[in-house]
Write a structure and sequence with these properties.
This protein is an alpha/beta fold. It is built from 14 helices and 14 strands. It binds adenosine monophosphate. Adenosine monophosphate binds next to helix 3.
């Protein structure tokens, strides 16, 4: 059995891992860490919750601890780009916990908050910059981040960053890096665009994959409830009556739907918080804190937040609507069953959701089991009506 001791990681990193209770590497860590320690580029297909943050952070921390470099002002040794502010914050927290016994400095660069403290943090140079792409590009263009000392470039959740329109931005950053550098690209899915990006920015990468592309985490028990749109709220409230579920995330497609669900639950005395892009960073952090501490039972979120929430022990994910982009389903339900735990994901499905349900089932390669035995059930034809086959052959006499 592989454990962290079998990797060439300094004692201070090993000690930090013991302190935070990481004993045995997850499969993605087992496959990625040795290759990254050797300095290889890496293409990782891994879903959220697989432990990929440690997979890409530990090797760079090791490199920076064992080989200190004098940084020039506004320079850094590693750039980690991730799509959401929550994810950036969590990656930085993980880096702090892995490196607390070594001399490695990291900082967060993200939108939605004042850039002044970020600019100050960059002044003296910092080993690791963890950033959302928009603010990073902004500060880079203003000359506050300089790339000539960068040794490692990491793209986390690259598929989502491309969805958000950062293809050109990523290519631009990559083109400004010094010739000799290591690039790591992690993506939950492998659409054509990611393949093209990988071909452009990776140099003979090691490919690691922990689950089949876009396959749903097997440990998640998934089911679908068919209902009329006007009955969704009643159905939702009836599902929340199951008091064995104490940490629940509800996903909605749009911000306005989040507000409506939050109002509904608050009126029904369910302790609830919300997270979407119209809220300030402070409000989003507070909602996550309250949810993590157990002060609120339910968090209602849009898809944009679905990649950035790393809260263990989420025991139920409810899809209030099916996402239009089927890959988001995988990310949403991936909020439960983190790091190999079990979880439950329920989807409420009205007529409008049917085409999206079909797409999801196609993507995950199986039908999600239906719950028929509930008071708000409505029958829908599950699959598209099949075109009648024309008989072309000769009629038998
Ligand atoms: P990630 O996919 O990096 O967001 O990690 C998901 C969760 O798994 C986080 O809560 C980590 O703290 C946890 N985790 C990562 N690696 C390990 C490990 N080797 N042992 C136990 N938990 C881990």
């Amino acid at each position: 059995m592989v454990d962290f001791n079998s990797f060439k990681l300094s004692k201070c990193i090993q000690d930090a891992l013991v302190d935070i209770g990481h004993v045995k590497p997850t499969p993605i860590q087992e496959k990625s860490i040795p290759a990254l320690l050797e300095g290889r580029d890496l293409l990782g297909i891994a879903q959220t919750g697989t432990g990929k943050t440690a997979a890409f952070s530990l090797p760079m921390i090791e490199k920076f601890i064992s080989n200190e470099v004098k940084l020039m002002p506004n320079h850094c040794r590693a750039i980690i780009l991730a799509p959401t502010r929550e994810l950036v914050t969590q990656i930085n927290e993980s880096i702090l916990s892995f490196s607390k016994k070594g001399n490695v400095r990291s900082t967060v660069i993200m939108g939605g908050v004042s850039s002044a403290p970020q600019v100050i943090a960059l002044n003296e140079g910092v080993d690791i910059v963890v950033a959302t792409p928009g603010r990073f590009i902004d500060l880079m263009e203003q000359g506050f981040i300089k790339l000539s000392q960068v040794e490692t470039f990491v793209l986390d959740e690259a598929d989502m960053m491309l969805d958000m329109g950062f293809y050109e931005g990523v290519i631009d950053i990559a083109s400004k890096l010094p010739n000799l550098h290591q690039t790591v690209l992690f993506s939950a899915t492998m659409p054509k665009e990611i393949e093209t990006l990988a071909n452009q920015i990776l140099n003979k990468p090691v490919k690691v994959e922990v689950a089949a592309q876009s396959s749903t985490v097997d440990k998640i028990e998934q089911s679908v409830y068919f209902t009329l749109a006007e009955n969704k709220n009643y159905l939702l409230l009836s599902l929340l009556e199951d008091k064995t579920k104490s940490r629940i995330i509800i996903f909605c497609k749009a911000k306005y739907a989040v507000s409506e669900v939050v109002e509904l639950l608050a009126r029904s005395d369910v302790s609830v918080g919300e997270i979407h892009s119209n809220l300030t960073q402070g409000q989003r952090n507070k909602a996550i804190e309250d949810f993590t501490s157990g002060a609120i039972r339910v968090l209602v979120a849009t898809d944009i937040a679905s990649r950035g929430i790393d809260i263990n022990d989420v025991d139920l994910v409810i899809n209030y609507n099916m996402p239009e982009d089927a890959t988001y389903y995988v990310h949403r339900i991936g909020r439960t069953a983190r790091a190999g735990r079990e979880g439950v994901a329920l989807s409420l499905c009205s007529e409008k959701d049917l085409p999206f349900l079909r797409n999801v089932q196609k993507l995950i390669g199986k039908n999600i089991s239906q719950v028929l035995d509930h008071p708000f059930h409505h029958d829908y034809p599950l699959s598209k009506p099949k075109a009648k086959k024309r008989y072309k052959g000769r009629r038998r006499r």
